[in-house]
Design goal:
- With 167 residues, the protein is of the alpha+beta class.
- Helices cover 28% and strands 21% of the residues.
- The protein has 3 helices and 5 strands.
- Strands 1-2-3-5-4 form a 5-stranded antiparallel sheet, covered by helices on one side.
- Helix 1 (28-42) runs antiparallel to helix 2 and helix 2 (51-74) runs antiparallel to helix 3.
């Protein structure tokens, strides 16, 4: 995709977009992680220039695994993975056909398996949410955004140049 073909972010900068059509649930998590790793390599996140950047790449791959796994477990499987990259930000979007929005399960022990995916999103993503897929489409898109460099959880997030939750 040439620079002139890239869509504009909300701040007027250009963003690069990668799409992966999906079907079923078998092997979909590893396909999405591999697709994301290839995109991150093309966008210069890999190889990482230091330990912090390397950890951020691992965070992104874990976040992709979490949202895709949630689509498999709670929404019949994802239909599309979209990666949007621009100005030091990455937006991950996972579309499925379920209208049910992600919701935090009631409190449970961290020692028990399962049910911690949204806590991982809260901890590692700069922001996340869900939105309707759009006119004529059934289901939702669960999205998350991360900056190229991590930030301590106590710091306010920098302004996001990519599309945010329209609600």
């Amino acid at each position: 995709m040439s620079v002139g073909d890239m869509p504009e972010g909300v701040d007027g900068s250009r963003e690069q977009v990668r799409r992966l059509a999906l079907y079923g649930t078998r092997g979909v998590v590893s396909r999405c992680r591999d697709f994301t790793a290839r995109a991150l390599a093309e966008w210069g996140w890999i190889p990482a220039e230091n330990e912090e950047a390397e950890q951020r790449v691992e965070d992104v791959l874990l976040l992709v695994s979490e949202v895709v796994t949630n689509a498999c477990l709670h929404a019949g499987g994802p239909e599309e993975l979209v990666l949007r990259h621009g100005n030091g930000w990455l937006r991950v979007e996972v579309a499925d056909t379920s209208p049910e929005r992600p919701h935090v399960q009631r409190s449970r022990s961290p020692a028990l398996p399962g049910g911690h995916g949204l806590m991982v999103l809260d901890r590692l993503a700069g922001d996340w949410g869900s939105e309707d897929r759009g006119p004529g489409a059934v289901g939702k898109v669960v999205w998350l955004e991360v900056s190229r460099t991590s930030r301590p959880p106590w710091s306010p997030p920098p302004p996001r140049p990519l599309r945010g939750d329209p609600s």
